[in-house]
Amino acid sequence: MGVVYVQWDDSYSVGVELIDKQHKQLFDFTNALYEGCRRGETAAREHFIETLHATVDYVAVHFSTEERIMEKINYPDTANHKREHADFVKKIMESQKELEEDKKGVALKFVQFLRDWVLSHIAICDKKFVEYLNKQGGIKN
Question: Residue 38 domain-assigned?
Fold first, then answer.
């Protein structure tokens, strides 16, 4: 991959290997989408749309993982966390529609949104969730 738009470092770790691994993958998708924005118009659009579809699929897996754990430990803020996930998916769908309508600047705006959302969601919501998880004894099979 070329330019790194957002770099993982240990300050983003929530301390749960599975979730950290998935978050790192979201960083990789963000960087891949950014790389797509830097290409020529046609190549950028094709690369971006292809990567966006993969990101959507992966986000579904990641959100499902977090939500399953939340339900298992009866996390008291599950509804709000799920709402954040749902709002994020809605934003992805809106951006995808705008891309299909060939609106200008959508790709870069979406990459910036993704970076900011992932960073703030990890730093605030996911760390709060994992703090509660750890108080419950961590992940159990």
Answer: yes
Residue 51 resides in a domain: yes
**Is the overall model pTM greater than 0.70, yes or no?**
yes
3-class DSSP string for the chain: CCCCCCCCCHHHCCCCHHHHHHHHHHHHHHHHHHHHHCCCHHHHHHHHHHHHHHHHHHHHHHHHHHHHHHHHCCCCCHHHHHHHHHHHHHHHHHHHHHHHCCCCCHHHHHHHHHHHHHHHHHHHHHHHHHHHHHHCCCCCC
In whole angstroms, give the CA distance from residue 87 to residue 71: 19
Question: Residue 19: which of 66, 57, 60 has the closest Cα?
Answer: 66
Residue 3 lies in a domain: no
Tell me how far the alpha carbon of residue 137 is from its chain's centroid.
26
Q: How many domains does the chain have?
A: 1
pLDDT band at 71, cuts 50/70/90?
A: very high
What CATH number does the domain containing 50 carry?
Answer: 1.20.120.50
